[in-house]
Amino acid sequence: MKIMEELVINVAKEFTEFPWARYKEDWDFSWEEFFEKFLDNTENYKKIEIILDGTYWYPSSFLSEAFNRFYKKYGENWWEKLVFISEEDPSLVDFINHLVKKDGK
Description:
With 105 residues, the chain is α/β, with parallel strands linked by helices. It has helices at 11-15, 31-39, 60-74, 78-81, 91-103, and strands at 4-10, 45-51, 82-85. The chain starts with a strand and ends with a helix.
């Protein structure tokens, strides 16, 4: 297994500007689809940079579910592996951390 340095995911450009759905059966661009497409098979990356800017809004359910699933898969090292970037709303990074700590255990 070859370890790669970094994966960069720009949510708005590579996934959608409207990440609103909770489940795939609810609507397109759900947290389930995001997780499966981008986060599920990332064992080969040392770091995953997620650019959060450019979307219209993130419901807490999308953030909580996608990143809690990542936490459950990778454990305590999840925060070291993920790097969140948001110049538009830097508080999103703290909010994601809060959601995962609150719901992930």
